[in-house]
Amino acid sequence: MIQAAVMGFGTIGSGVAEVLDINRDGIIQATGQEIGVKYILDLREFPDSPYGDRIIHDIEVILKDPEVQIVVETMGGVHPAFDFTKRCLEAGKHVVSSNKAVVDAKGTELLAIAREHHVNYLFEAAVGGGIPLIRPLTTSLKGETIQEISGILNGTTNYILTKMSREGQSFARALLTAQELGYAEKNPEADVEGHDTGRKIAILTALATGQEVKFEDLHVEGITHITAEDFLYAKKLGFSVKLVGTSHIEKGKACVYVCPVMVDADNPLYGVNDVYNGVVVDGKTVGKIMFYGSGAGKLPTANAVVSDLVDIAGHLTENAAFGWKEGKFPLKSFETEKFRYYIRISGDPTEDIDGVRAAFGSVKVIEVPELTGEFAVLTGEMEEERFQRVSPAVRGLISSIRVR
Ligand code: HSE
């Protein structure tokens, strides 16, 4: 039996113990042996859990036990998860993580420590929840030239936007429902401000380029300013609004950003609704591939963690080439990206359209019967820099959303 320890017995950590039980036979068939949970490190006691007898409160127990070969980190937050992970790797134990905050902030350092100690640091569950995404990207697509990754990477915001689209709800109302259902945290900032998506697209870009990409260097916008009115115009256009993380990689540089975008029905992300995630990877020779599935949730995410455990069980004595090197991948300014723009304007199109055309050139006018005293336009394609420069001069401009 391969003995593992789990650090953090919350939703995902307890899910890992469950998936190891549910899939016991399949795991034995795949690896030749059972993967058991010897210890569970948590501050709390779990007297009613079937795994309650394995709870410990001291990391030293795991570090000092030579039987524990793999440690699962499902603690969340950077500290003390980073410190514990580092110590486990230095003690010669493989670590599997679902913790994107640690992977984004400390991934470069932990991958280097893993290499140095001939163990593995894997984190399939950190991006896209249960969707097999990191492994296909780093194995099946190894050597392929990745030109673009664009994805709906956050289930909570996708749920909110779907609710707004289908039921005409305001952002605040849809957020409340998401909180009531347990999708959104009490403090929803990381999700609704795009930070969670930003960390995930940073990790995917680092894996695709083989060099470091940090969340703090990206252009990140959330969905708090999206309104029910925007969805009325979007429907008239046949569009939907999605929070998308994009990484556009060209000539040795990447433009990596997160922002809400309007997508048309031909875009594969258009049909990704509710808490689902969808990621489109565009490779130079393979073309566009789409990954779709549960981006969050106990058992799907735990399944991704267990897939890493099974992977490591196949090479317990070596570090398999994975991850990225030290040194930042060169990034291109967000202002160089080209979009069309949906712009909502207060006024009357017959009186105000000349000013709009003077700024943006030819535009399509959109009016919806439910909204009076305002209209919207759809511009042609232009660089973000031009849009930023000319839009302040447009009279009555209420808001805008980029269109892809
Ligand atoms: N808060 C995240 C989401 C959890 O809603 O997608 C999964 O990373």
From TrEMBL:
Residues at which NADP(+) binds: M7, G8, F9, G10, T11, I12, G13, S14
Coiled coil segments of this chain: none
Domain Aspartate/homoserine dehydrogenase NAD-binding, chain residue ranges per copy: 8-124
Record key words, sorted: Amino-acid biosynthesis, Methionine biosynthesis, NADP, Oxidoreductase, Sodium, Threonine biosynthesis
Domain of life from the UniProt record: Bacteria
Active site (record annotation): K200
EC primary class: oxidoreductase
Cited Gene3D superfamilies: 3.30.70.260, Dihydrodipicolinate Reductase, domain 2, NAD(P)-binding Rossmann-like Domain
EC number(s) reported in the record: 1.1.1.3
Residues the record lists as binding L-homoserine: E185
Pathway recorded for this protein: Amino-acid biosynthesis; L-methionine biosynthesis via de novo pathway; L-homoserine from L-aspartate: step 3/3; Amino-acid biosynthesis; L-threonine biosynthesis; L-threonine from L-aspartate: step 3/5
BP terms from Gene Ontology: methionine biosynthetic process; threonine biosynthetic process
Pfam families to which the protein is assigned, alphabetical: Homoserine_dh (PF00742), NAD_binding_3 (PF03447)
Binding residue positions for NADPH: K100
InterPro entries per record: Asp/hSer_DH_NAD-bd, HDH, HDH_cat, HDH_CS, NAD(P)-bd_dom_sf
Homoserine dehydrogenase catalytic domain segment(s): 132-310
Catalysed reaction, written as an equation: L-homoserine + NADP(+) = L-aspartate 4-semialdehyde + NADPH + H(+)
A single GO molecular function term of this UniProt record: homoserine dehydrogenase activity
UniProt family annotation: Belongs to the homoserine dehydrogenase family.
PANTHER family, sorted: HOMOSERINE DEHYDROGENASE
Protein name: Homoserine dehydrogenase
